Amino acid sequence: MKKAILVLTALFISTVPAWAVLGQSVESVRSDQAHLKGQLRSTALQGFSVQQINSPDGTVVKEYVSPAGMVFGISWEAPTMPNLAQLLGTTYFTQFQQAPRSAARRRGPTTVRTDQLVVESGGHMRAFRGRAYVPGLLPGSLSAEVIR
């Protein structure tokens, strides 16, 4: 079991460049766009906005931003697994590593749910997807279901 967790962690911290870190300001989106060499599209919705970056390699990253300008959630669809250490940032990645995982399996999606962090990730080569969010940063009465 420990070996499987180590292998999963190694997979999570390799490949794909960094994106906005949970809890950072909306200004980080521009640097992510430049780093991914992608097209940025911003959509204002009721109570939050979505900053979507489409990269030439097929990666789509959506960063969910509160009215206060903080990234409260991130979702991704990508041909390779994103670097969760950079995506979650030092604090949240440490929590991710230390949190108990969903049902122990060798294959299948990884799910971590704590009071301070939710990460759901899965997929296979050329089709990885997932989302991460901080429940305490969700604006107002917004449901986590908006992060897709």
Number of domains: 1
How would a textbook summarize the main sheet?
A: 7 strands, antiparallel
Decide which structural class fits the backbone.
alpha+beta
pLDDT < 50 stretches: 1-18
Short précis:
The protein contains three helices and seven strands; from the N terminus they run H-H-E-E-E-E-H-E-E-E.
Please describe what this structure looks like:
The protein has one domain. It is globular and about 35 Å long. The chain is α+β, with helices and mostly antiparallel strands and 148 residues long. A hairpin with a 4-residue loop joins strand 5 and strand 6. 28% of the residues are buried. The termini are far apart. The protein has a seven-stranded antiparallel β-sheet with strand order 1-2-3-4-7-6-5, with helices on one face. It contains three helices and seven strands.
List the helices and strands and how they pair.
Elements: H1 2-12, H2 28-36, E1 39-45, E2 48-54, E3 60-65, E4 71-78, H3 84-98, E5 110-113, E6 118-124, E7 127-133
Antiparallel strand pairs: 1-2, 2-3, 3-4, 4-7, 5-6, 6-7
Task: Name the descriptors.
alpha+beta, 148 residues, seven-stranded antiparallel β-sheet, 31% strand, 7 strands, 3 helices, single chain, globular, disordered N terminus
